[in-house]
Amino acid sequence: MTTVRQRRAGKGTEAAEDQPSEEKNVKPDGKILSDHTGGRLWNILSISVGGIVALSLGLLTSVYVATLHENDLWFSNIKEVEREISFRTECGLYYSYYKQMIQAASIQQGLHGLVYDNKTESVRTINILERMNVYQEVLLSILYRILPIQQYLEPVYFYIYTLFGLQAVYVIALYVTSWLLSGTWLSGLLAACWYITNRTDTTRVEFTIPLRENWALPFFAVQIAAITYLLRTHLQPVQERLTLTAVFIATFLFSLTWQFNQFMMLIQALALFILDCFDMLPTAKVTWLYIIQISALLLVCVLQFFNSMILGSLLISFNASVLIARTIQKNLKKGGLLNRLGKLILHVLLVLCLTLLINKFIKKSLNLESDEHIFKFLKAKFGFGATRDFDANLYLCEEAFGLLPLNTFSRLSDTLLFYVYVFVLFLLTVAAVIVAFQNLSGSNQVQFMEKMEEYTITLKPDAAYNLIHTVLFGCLALSTMRMKYLWTSHMCVFASFGLCSTEVWKLILKCIRLYTSQRTHVIKYSILIITLLYISYKFWPGIMDELSELREFYDPDTVELMNWIKSSTPNTAVFAGSMQLLAGVKLCTGRTLTNHPHYEDKNLRERTKQIYQIYAKRSPEDVYRILRSFGTDYVILEDSICYERRHSRGCRLRDLLDIANGHIMDGLGENEPDLKPSLYPRFCEEIKKNLPPYTIHFTRVFQNKTFHVYRLAKHK
User: Fold this and answer.
1) Using one digit for the tens of pLDDT, what is the confidence trace for 234-273?
2) From CA 134, how far away is CA 128, in angstroms rounded?
3) Whole-angstrom distance, CA of residue 644 vs CA of residue 260
4) Rg for the chain (alpha carbons), in Å?
5) Residues 23, 25: Cα–Cα separation, whole Å
6) 117 phi/psi in degrees, rounded to 5
7) Coil, strand or helix: which one is 205?
8) From the CB of residue 59, how many other CB atoms can be counted at a distance below 10 Å?
9) CA–CA distance, 175 with 59 (Å, rounded to integer)
10) Distance (Å, rounded) from C-alpha 43 to C-alpha 241?
């Protein structure tokens, strides 16, 4: 039988809390005596050694990913334009604002340029600080300007070293979370080792440095560590206040640095809601966490000039609904099993209805449509009807937004991580189900529980939270591959905690009638050491080979294009093309763009669909009119898009455009019956023939093996 049981020790280290209280340490009135001097010294030594190991592993991880980045690109030896081109797609867009702030005449002028930006979207002035999460670039640029480091460190190195430094914070936070859960720093060591040896599936920082998630996930890990500590029993009021402050700061920084923060925190809020419904977490602490989430998000909303996507977020509506529903249903956790189940069902329905009503009211009142493409994508992804919506299909056809590939599990199994994770997940899920049932049925029969004491296992609130957290984020990762990094890093924490948990091994040994305290500790530490030795033996040579492998950045066609733009076009020229390429154009040349990869704006999405007609079956007059409506001077056509083979038929960009335009797709295969043949050939193919209907509007001014640049005529 399983039950929730508070730890009897209120103070001391984690290791001490794992040990059962002994009668000789307890006064008749129940007060716990102070530990012996030897025990205190041992605990201090253990914490000191564990802290040193955590810092060392964090720094080693930073050096490791920085070395991989250098070895892969020979970053220190390539030209500046090549360094900037290496920041692909949206990474280049974000870094361009850091560069813009560095090159501004003053900090004030740099900020003014961001608030009143007219180069990111042509014929339109936008507020970059409102639209995008770039406060980290602003802060770094200010630090670089005021610190006396310009003579020793180039701006780009200050930027990338900061990101690699955050990896140290990330690993230390994972290490501490595992340590807090298990009570031994060896568990944190195993979590960090798993994170490093499964690097392919736990991080992509070395080749997508400026990506928003690489800024945000370290703070998210810190927040999880702080929540784990907050949910421990018998915290002193001062400890609780300090921990709540840490949770708020981490939540705020996480929210400030990633535009998808609201969706991640919504999943976190759902985890808290589920556990609170089954009485597995202290209600007061859960309430504080709801309030912290709302407060942090609203503060970010203010800093982002009342960003509409934040105001209309489901997280704010959901948390507000939970708090309102609680005030309506005050006796939710009283009564027998059937009574509580009925109340619980009503509570869930009330929260869902309130969430939808509040969210609908906010969006209707403020006319918010910033995130509608996400809900269209989710609707199509989970089979609620096919769609011809261009934006939704653009996401559906990207591998990163597809299901998690099965080979991910084989890689995670090579390090034993997946096997241990499934084992621990199964045990704790069974424990959680039993605990939830007992809580709902109000099973508080003390004498009965004392008789069954030898069959019990504790499921502490911090362990319960991390269990639901890993389950929900696991579901997210399975459905959307890009989100796997939120799951796999926590998988390292959860598996290492389970492997080093006294409670887990105690339960197993009791089930097979072999339990003794000494045997539990021998098995726990033996398996931990064997696992660490196995990982070291199998993966250390591979890591050394990886660190010794030297490659070099090579993209001559893009370098040639960027150099030509800088030398042969006016500074005020406006360029149209693919979102990914234009981000690089802005970073490398500073020219004005028609569109870009930051897709969280309805007007930009509509603009991008119009610009992409250069790859559709449209007349030259239509394409010219569309491009000129956005002030375009030059259009860049890419053969890799026009003749794309990376995606299958139906998912190529030109196919998505044909479907959205109601045209039959190219190539062999079926078409939907209502699609019609286009009256015109594909623009990106036909323009290269230099026929009069095209040359009257477009003049080719540059070409190489990959790119074709055309200047638009300026008809009166």
Assistant:
1) 899 999 999 999 999 999 999 999 999 999 999 999 999 9
2) 8
3) 30
4) 29
5) 5
6) -90, 125
7) coil
8) 15
9) 13
10) 24
Distance CA 424, CA 404 (A): 21
At residue 329, φ and ψ (nearest 5 deg) are -105, 85
Q: Which among 350, 351, 329 is positioned nearest to 340, based on CA atoms?
A: 329
Tell me, what's the pLDDT at 5? 39
DSSP 540-560: HHHHHHHHH-------HHHHH
Interatomic CA distance for residues 665 and 655, integer angstroms: 6
Per-residue pLDDT at 459: 83
323, 317 Cβ separation under 8 angstroms: no
Q: Are 658 and 669 within 8 A, CB to CB?
A: no
CB-CB contact of 373 with 392 (8 Å): yes
Q: The pTM is what?
A: 0.91
The pair of three-digit structure tokens given for residue 395, joined into one six-digit string: 């996401």
Identity (one letter) of the amino acid at 638?
E
CA distances from 33 to 14, 20, 29 (A): 17, 14, 11
The SS3 call for residue 397 is coil
Phi, psi of 458 (to 5 degrees): -80, 140
The pLDDT tens digits of the residues spanning 55-87 come to: 999 999 999 999 999 999 999 999 999 999 999
Give the confidence band of 41 by pLDDT, cuts at 50, 70, 90.
confident
For residues 216 and 224, give the distance between their C-alpha atoms in angstroms, rounded to a whole number: 13
Reply yes or no on whether the pLDDT at 660 is more than 60. Answer: yes
647 and 396 Cβ atoms separated by less than 8 Å: no
Strand partners, 709: 636, 702
Q: Is 224 exposed, middle or buried (0-12, 13-18, 19+ CB in 10 A)?
A: buried
CB atoms near residue 256 (< 10 Å): 22
H or E stretch at 712: strand 707-712
Q: How far apart are CA 47 and CA 15, in angstroms?
A: 10
Task: Specify whether the CB–CB gap between 201 and 484 falls below 8 A.
Answer: yes
Helix (H) or strand (E) holding 635: strand 634-638
Q: 12-26, 469-483, 646-660, 670-684: lowest mean pLDDT where?
A: 12-26
pLDDT at 197: 96
* Residue closest to 310 by CA, chosen among 539, 546, 129: 129
Tokens 């500590």 locate to 229
Question: What's the sign of the alpha-carbon dihedral 403, 408, 413, 416?
Answer: negative
Alpha-carbon distance of 524 to 518, in angstroms, equals 10
- Phi, psi of 708, rounded to the nearest 5 degrees: -130, 125
Q: Residue 340 is which amino acid?
A: R
- pLDDT over 90 (residue 503): no
Amino acid at 183: G
Phi, psi for 396 (deg, rounded to 5): -60, -30
Q: What was the pLDDT predicted at 385?
A: 63
pLDDT value of position 565: 97
CA–CA distance, 399 with 244 (Å, rounded to integer)? 38
- CA 395, 401, 402, 407 dihedral sign is positive
Q: Nearest-CA neighbor of 472 among 178, 330, 273, 311? A: 273
CA distances from 710 to 255, 448, 621, 636 (A): 41, 83, 15, 7
- Note the pLDDT of residue 454: 46
What are the start-end ranges of the E strands in 54-119?
A: none
Give the C-alpha separation, 650 to 620, whole Å. Answer: 24
Which pair of tokens denotes residue 398? 């990207």
Structure confidence at residue 386 (pLDDT)? 63
Tokens of 51: 């802290």
User: What is the Cα–Cα distance from 706 to 639, expressed in whole angstroms?
Assistant: 6
Average pLDDT, the chain: 89
- Residue 443 pLDDT: 55
pLDDT at 27 over 60: no
SS3 readout for 468-507: HHHHHHHHHHHHCHHHHHHHHHHHHHHHHHHHCCHHHHHH
Q: Are 636 and 708 in contact (CB under 8 A)?
A: yes
